Amino acid sequence: MTKTAIVEDALRAWFDPEARSVLEDRLLARMDAFDLRQADIERDVAFTYETLTHYIFYWLTRTEPLPEGERDIAHALGRKRFDHFIGQVARKRQN
Questions:
Q1: Which run of H or E residues covers position 4?
Q2: DSSP per residue, 38-77
Q3: Model confidence pLDDT, tens digit, residues 14-49
Q4: Measuring CA to CA, how many Å separate 47 from each of 10, 40, 56, 57?
Q5: At residue 63, does pLDDT exceed 90?
Q6: How far apart are the first and last CA of the chain?
């Protein structure tokens, strides 16, 4: 294909409104599909957050407070578990 043929095809496509509308229609259809998928993802994330919120609220209201003498030990254990969890997340993120 020659450069002249490429330029002619490009100009024909640019100035032909039907050819442009077909491309625009295809692009709009893809954008609409993307928008629908994005809305589904946002709905699922909102549902997940709400479920987590209800679980935490339930857990906080149903868990007995620790006796004063055991709090420091429990906090130290919680900090150790949290640090271990964060380390695992960091290692997984690097892979």
A1: helix 3-15
A2: HHHHHHHHHHHHHHHHHHHHHHHHHSPPPPGGGHHHHHHH
A3: 788 776 777 788 889 999 999 999 999 999 999 999
A4: 48, 11, 14, 15
A5: no
A6: 46
pTM over 0.85: no
Distance of alpha carbon 17 from alpha carbon 24, whole angstroms: 10
Q: What 3-state class would DSSP assign to 63?
A: coil
Residue pointed to by tokens 């271990």 = 84
Backbone angles phi, psi at 91, to 5 degrees: -65, -40
CB atoms within 10 A of CB 13: 13
Do residues 23 and 30 touch, judged by C-beta distance below 8 A? no
Within 10 angstroms of residue 52's Cβ, the number of other Cβ atoms is 10
